[in-house]
Design a protein that fits this description.
Pfam families: PALP (PF00291), THR4_C (PF24857), Thr_synth_N (PF14821). It contains 19 helices and 15 strands. The chain has 483 residues and is of the alpha/beta class. A six-stranded mixed beta sheet has the order 3-4-14-9-10-13. It is globular, with a radius of gyration of 21 Å. Residues 124, 126, 157, 235, 268-274, 325-326, 406, 429-430 line the site of pyridoxal-5'-phosphate (PLP).
Length: 483
């Protein structure tokens, strides 16, 4: 399997999976994609239907990472997808499923269900990919006797998923910047209570954007970056996307009895990483009817899928909402889909994303390209605080099921796209405990708390307060890498 850049296929540059594993953007500023999508055969679909999650992951990943020896890859997926890691769920049987499907009911003739993706260590779907990345990185670094210092900024979910994936991993340190005293007590405790010596929490005196700016400044110091082996694990990392392809297959098998059936998925979306994996599953031949993109008030993606206009937002136009992990001003993985939509024409992709930088967006409505969006199965919708709260309340009353704010955005938009006889699977992206304030507003009660998290907020915390100053963060990295 060869990988190319969405902006540069013309240059003939090709890479293996292992070569792009630890990297971010391609040199030309594009994103990596496989040169061709592997297709699944009817026989494979039949055989995969009954596989345990770890072995299904092996089958799918081996098509994309064929430069990793099969025995090694199988060992990695079996080490990653265990019931012990995905244990924050009602019973052992569900834990063994890794991503159990929870049936809600039938609405407008369509069976409606939730695919639970947030039973891992940080109670959000990002664990699904990040746990694999942790093991893949450790494996790849050990093979070449290398080390890596991961630097990142987080306002919550991504940072904690990265820390829980990398804790105790050989050859890896994590320096995670978060805005001091700006996260919820639960999120803060989740990150700062980690005592592993390879995890460093830096509480920046400022807001999330200050933390993000520091990461950019350090990354732009190329000499420092090379000397201290600085890397990232942001959402454009290809391995993260491909790890997410697996649960679309798992969800399909759980919701159907035969491979003649089709299903639709609704995906609460921000950076387009999760639903991009759904697009890839569909390109591989999984019988997906619709891919429903659900956004919150930050509706960049909904606007595109309704109108063909992609218009990134300025910081002042980006709202802080009660589904904060979807508060984005532009969707960093979107370029991968645009590349396929335009028939894989890197010159046009380059031009369009130059327009994004120079003019703030592009318009595909006039060209014939936008019409093809429906051929790829995409539709969309958006949600607001009021519809979110109403949906949490309605699902609780009707189905005795507590859902988080992001999943509620998914259910709200899914209901606008139901088709009789076609199962609709909403991806559950986080557990309610992470966003307790809105649960209390909607249900006038406390969110459910998995047993392992009782007393989390009173555990001792380990973090370093730093001013919003890139030099001070560099000094900290130097002092803690023993170079
Ligand atoms: C990250 C995240 C999302 C958005 O996922 P993308 O891959 O960025 O589209 C949705 N819900 C939750 C809870 C998240 O943490």
């Amino acid at each position: 399997m060869n990988y190319l850049s969405t902006r540069g296929a013309g240059t003939g540059e090709r890479h293996t999976f292992s070569e792009i594993l630890l990297g971010g953007l391609a040199k030309d500023g594009g994103l990596y994609l496989p040169a061709d999508y592997p297709r699944v055969t009817p026989d494979e679909l039949t055989r995969w239907r009954t596989l345990p999650y770890a072995d299904l992951a092996f089958e799918i990943l081996s098509k994309f990472c064929d430069d990793i020896p099969a025995d090694d890859l199988r060992a990695l997926t079996r080490k990653t997808y265990t019931a012990a890691t995905y244990c924050n769920v009602r019973d052992d049987e569900s834990a063994a499923q890794i991503t159990p499907l929870k049936t809600l009911g039938v609405e407008d003739g369509a069976p409606l269900s939730l695919l639970e993706l947030s039973n891992g260590p940080t109670l959000a779907f990002k664990d699904m990919a990040m746990q694999l990345i942790g093991n893949l990185f450790e494996y790849a670094l050990a093979k070449h006797g290398e080390t890596l210092n991961i630097l990142g900024a987080t306002s919550g979910d991504t940072g904690s998923a990265a820390e829980y994936a990398m804790r105790g991993k050989k050859g890896i340190r994590v320096f995670m910047l978060s805005p001091y005293k700006k996260m919820s007590a639960f999120q803060t405790a989740q990150m700062y209570s980690l005592q592993d010596p390879n995890i460093f929490n830096l509480a920046v005196q400022g807001v999330f954007d200050d933390a993000q700016d520091i990461v950019k400044a350090v990354s732009n110091d190329h000499a420092f970056k090379a000397k201290y082996k600085i890397g990232t694990v942001n959402s454009i990392n290809w391995a993260r996307v491909v790890a997410q392809v697996v649960y679309y297959f798992k969800g399909y098998f759980a919701a159907t009895k035969s491979n003649a059936e089709r299903v639709s998925f609704t995906v609460p979306s921000g950076n387009f990483g999760n639903v991009c994996a759904g697009h890839i599953a569909r390109m591989m031949g999984l019988p997906i009817e619709k891919l429903v993109v659900a956004t919150n008030e930050n509706d960049v993606l909904d606007e595109f899928f309704r109108t063909g206009i992609y218009r990134v937002r300025k910081a002042a136009e980006t709202y802080h909402t009660s589904s904060p992990s979807m508060d984005i001003s532009k969707a960093s993985n979107f370029e991968r889909f645009v590349y396929d939509l335009l028939g894989r024409d890197p010159a046009r992709v380059l031009q369009l994303f130059r327009d994004v930088e120079e003019k703030g967006g592009f318009d595909l409505a006039a060209s014939g390209d936008f019409a093809r969006v429906r051929e790829f199965g995409f539709v969309s919708g958006s949600s607001s605080h009021d519809t979110r709260v109403d949906t949490i309340r309605d699902v609780f009353q009707r189905y005795d099921t507590m859902i988080d704010t992001h999943t509620a955005d998914g259910v709200k938009v899914a209901r606008e796209h139901l088709q009789s006889g076609i199962p609709m699977i909403v991806l559950e992206t986080a557990q309610p405990i992470k966003f307790g304030e809105t649960i209390r507003e909607a249900l006038l009660r406390e969110p459910e708390r998995p047993a392992a998290f009782s007393g989390l907020e009173s555990l001792p915390q380990r973090f370093e307060v730093v001013p919003a100053d890139a030099q001070r963060v560099k000094d900290f990295i130097v002092a803690n890498t023993g170079e």
